[in-house]
Amino acid sequence: MQERGKSIKELVVKYRTAYDYKPPVGLEVRNPESIAEAFKDMAEESQEVLTALFLNGRNVLQSFRRVHTGAVTESLADPGVILRDCLLAGCVGLVVMHNHPSGNTRPSVQDKRVAEHLEKACEYLNIKLIDFMIIGDEGQFYSFAEGGLLN
Question: Exposed, middle or buried, 3 (CB in 10 Å: 0-12/13-18/19+)?
């Protein structure tokens, strides 16, 4: 029996235009270069920013979300939050990217650990982690898929 005055929260999914990133409508993710070009403005952030891109079965961008804004040297990547949003968006493909304000695109030990955990979590939910990327200065980026760090 529910107490009077108590209520449960209703989940509502709302899409909105946000941030300065304006990827082209219908962006088809064919390679890391197309992603890096669409989100090149992430390099200008003074803090680490983690962004998730949600794709349909044809790898067309349906929506994206800035998942976390962190410190100068780190950002949190909670697989549960990222995958919840992917499922709510009705998507089956995922690209996760973050910037390194230092401009250095070399993956850290923590970056590798996060990508590994996220990939395992995706596998359980039948979501394809297409790439995990690091955006650096002057159009530089690192792709875990191209680097052989994703299965």
Answer: exposed
CATH of the domain at 55: 3.40.140.10
Rounded to two decimals, what is the model's pTM? Answer: 0.83
Residue 110 lies in a domain: yes
Q: What is the pLDDT of residues 6-34, one digit of tens each?
A: 767 666 766 555 555 666 668 899 999 99
Residue 41 domain flag: yes
